[in-house]
Write a structure and sequence with these properties.
Layout lengths: L2 E5 L2 E3 L5 E8 L4 E10 L6 E9 L2 E6 L7 E6 L4 E6 L8 E10 L6 E5 L3 E5 L2
Parallel strand pairs: 2-11
Antiparallel strand pairs: 1-3, 3-8, 4-5, 4-9, 5-6, 7-8, 9-10, 9-11
Length: 124
């Protein structure tokens, strides 16, 4: 069973920065994708940023609303993914979740796991 542990989050003023970190553990597995989603009250859980491993190449994807402000970085060897969030806005307030898609064996099926959420509040 793959576990994801999330750290970071908190309260920050508009224009401020926060960094979220997520570490995967729990046996042998190969990471295909790690990323971040967020869910504001009464809203659905939406993609923030994803990083997908493609051999020697890493592919990233961002929600339009965070492009140019957020940066995702995945370390496949350490099984970690960070989200650096700059120039935060009140609209970024949400619970942020880490997700990973892994293979437990070569050529096997993909499995998806979620970490616990962490609250990010942007307010003056």
């Amino acid at each position: 069973q793959v576990q994801l542990v999330v750290s970071g989050g908190g309260l920050v003023q508009p224009g401020g920065s926060l960094r979220l970190s997520c570490t995967a553990s729990g046996g042998l597995f190969t990471i295909n994708t790690m990323g971040w989603y967020r869910q504001a009250p009464a809203n659905q859980r939406d993609l923030v940023a994803l990083s997908t491993s493609g051999g020697s190449t890493e592919y990233t994807e961002y929600a339009d609303s965070v492009k140019g402000r957020f940066t995702i970085s995945m370390d496949n060897a350490k099984k970690t993914v960070d989200l650096q969030m700059n120039n935060l806005k009140p609209g970024d307030t949400a619970v942020y979740y880490c997700k990973t898609i892994v293979r437990l064996r070569v050529g096997g099926p993909y499995y998806q796991y979620w970490g616990q959420g962490t609250q990010v509040t942007v307010s003056s």
